[in-house]
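2024-03-11 09:14:02 DEBUG pipeline.ingest accepted 1 chain
2024-03-11 09:14:02 DEBUG pipeline.ingest length=202
2024-03-11 09:14:03 DEBUG pipeline.predict start
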Amino acid sequence: LLQSQINPHFLYNTLDAIVWLAEAGEQKKVVSMVGSLSDFFRISLNQGQDILDVREELQHVRSYLEIQQMRYQDILQYEICVPEELYSSRIPKITLQPLVENAMKHGIDYMEEPDTGKIIVEFCRKPEQLVFSIYNNGPLIELEMVEKLLNEQGKGYGIHNIKERLELYYGALGSLEVKVTDAKYTCFTVKMPDTLQKKNPK
């Protein structure tokens, strides 16, 4: 289901951007965007495996953000703040990218020029726990939207689906939380044990 529900609008928009860049003679940007798109789908499929290293999951996020940064030109910045020693940790695939996509859709897309959108991805290890946080400085999320995103069932790998997958793998030890920080960022935080408790579902 995850592999069959790749957001088609993202693919269409990216291909349109590639065509536009090619027509404008931006060869280097075309090569870069096609490479990022290739990496994005390679990691999305991951040869049918449900678990991957944090290094690969972050590359998936980075490929997505590189494409969006080329589309949005100078109005999108991003930071990925993850200690290299944590790259080998294992997590369910396609856990972070949908949260970043949500930050674009419900945050950055609604910013008014000349403001610059910013997305920050952070990862740390606490005692027996992995913690990922995705921040965006777009319009602050409202409580009603939080409830809708966390509880509304739908196809593909949306926010609700991530929450359900965390519960599938980790039970009560996996969680997805949303809050507004003191610095006026909307923050989605994923928490999970640092070792999987269940084998890959068949």
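2024-03-11 09:14:41 DEBUG pipeline.report The two ends are 13 Å apart (CA to CA).
2024-03-11 09:14:41 DEBUG pipeline.predict end
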